[in-house]
Design goal:
transmembrane helix, NADPH-dependent 1-acyldihydroxyacetone phosphate reductase, elongated, alpha/beta, about 150 residues, Rossmann fold, three-stranded parallel beta sheet
Length: about 150
């Protein structure tokens, strides 16, 4: 604030726009971060501070691998057993073919942050386009889409 310049970068997720099944807590935490960023962006602008929300799509990381392993350790798995295929698909979807390597995402984010006027919103990677479209779709269509794709 004293320098009257700078950029705060918060990493949310594209899933915050159109949360699907089996990702409620994750999507909610990212949506909260998006809301915080939106508020800070307006509050800090008069101090010369930019706030950018990064909303990655599917990005290769250890998150998907560690999430899948947790299903095998869950005690209440019996309630979700019939949804196993969809649950595992949800945790592994960002790790599959076409997902963005973390290094590629990082380079794109850094290039965007270093611009003279960094954008307030930066979405990049697998599924970012489809989830952006689903954000504007009627809820009945979004629900139908997820039931069809995620088999729930």
């Amino acid at each position: 604030m004293e320098r009257r310049k700078g950029t705060i970068v918060n990493v949310g997720s594209i899933t915050a726009l159109a949360p699907g099944p089996w990702a409620g807590v994750y999507s909610a935490s990212k949506a909260a971060l998006h809301a915080l960023s939106d508020s800070l962006r307006v509050e800090l602008k008069s101090f010369g501070i930019n706030v950018m929300t990064v909303a990655p799509g599917g990005t290769k990381s250890n998150l998907g691998n560690s999430s899948a392993a947790k299903y095998d350790q869950t005690h209440d798995w019996k309630y979700y057993k019939k949804y196993e295929e969809g649950l595992r698909a949800r945790t592994e979807i960002s790790q599959g073919p076409g997902s963005t390597p973390a290094e590629e995402l990082a380079k794109k984010v850094v290039a965007s942050v270093l611009k003279k006027n960094p954008p307030a919103w930066f979405a990049y990677g697998q599924f970012s386009a489809i989830l952006s479209v689903l954000y504007y779709a009627p809820l009945w269509f979004r629900d139908y889409f997820y039931r069809l794709v995620m088999k729930c």
